[in-house]
């Protein structure tokens, strides 16, 4: 019978690869005790966050720092471009300011919109979901933000400590951002971007998606307008945000 200690071993052995861990569990791969300096919770544990159990591929294990109970309350995911425009960063701050008294703010601790969303929520509650090991500060220019969130909020990852931020990790990570949220707000996005993976996961989970429309003529960030054409909600003003 597979135990939580076995899953920790498999996660470390297979660098957090979901499929490899599943194979190890199915085949009852021999496991050896593994020490981890960070708190972790597995799919077998009663304290495993309920929001992730609804995923088609729930993470086998979560490594975290901070207050895991933040995943139990109402949450709003706020995501968008890493190369965000000044307008998008300002809109992100204004939207989070309206949401943070009612929702825990969830994002991916990336540059741009993610970092601004977390920063604006530091006086309340925010959750950062990583695409690398929890001991890896990525990107480096978010190091102070990481430090604050590790101490007073929550950061988590399904990848074991030491795992580098490989490009393939981030689209896979985005399913967790969607699952942790009761609503998803996109403040700016390219038509082909990681944000679109988050939106796809949100739609699969019936999480409402709201978008800030892109200014006419801005061809570099047409993702929100495309989503609105496809049926996403459009955010026109802060009063509407207050009513979410």
TrEMBL record:
Signal peptide: none annotated. It comes from the Bacteria. Residues 41-242 form the Smf/DprA SLOG domain. InterPro entries: DprA, DrpA_SLOG. Transmembrane segments: none annotated. Pfam families: DNA_processg_A. One of its GO terms (biological process) is DNA-mediated transformation. Belongs to the DprA/Smf family. PANTHER family: PROTEIN SMF (PTHR43022:SF1). This is Smf/DprA SLOG domain-containing protein. It comes from Faecalibaculum rodentium.
């Amino acid at each position: 019978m597979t135990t939580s200690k076995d899953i920790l071993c498999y996660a470390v052995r297979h660098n957090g690869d979901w499929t490899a861990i599943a194979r190890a569990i199915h085949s009852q791969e021999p496991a050896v005790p593994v020490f981890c300096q960070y708190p972790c919770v597995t799919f077998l544990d009663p304290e495993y966050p309920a929001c992730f159990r609804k995923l088609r591929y729930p993470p086998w294990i979560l490594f975290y720092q901070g207050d895991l109970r933040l995943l139990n309350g109402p949450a709003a995911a706020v995501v968008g471009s890493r190369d965000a425009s000044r307008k998008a960063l300002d809109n992100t701050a204004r939207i989070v300011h309206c949401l943070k008294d009612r929702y825990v703010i969830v994002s991916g601790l990336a540059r741009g919109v993610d970092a601004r969303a977390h920063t604006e929520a530091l006086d309340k509650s925010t959750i950062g979901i990583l695409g690398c090991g929890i001991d890896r500060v990525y990107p480096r220019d978010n190091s102070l933000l990481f430090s604050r969130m590790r101490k007073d909020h929550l950061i988590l990852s399904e990848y074991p400590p030491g795992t580098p931020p490989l490009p393939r990790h981030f689209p896979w990570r985005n399913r967790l951002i969607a699952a942790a949220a009761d609503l998803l707000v996109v403040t700016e996005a390219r038509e082909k971007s990681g944000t679109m993976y988050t939106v796809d996961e949100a739609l699969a989970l019936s999480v409402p998606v709201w978008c800030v429309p892109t200014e006419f003529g801005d061809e570099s960030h047409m993702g929100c307008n495309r989503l609105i054409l496809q049926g996403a909600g459009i955010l026109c003003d802060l009063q509407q945000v207050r009513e979410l």
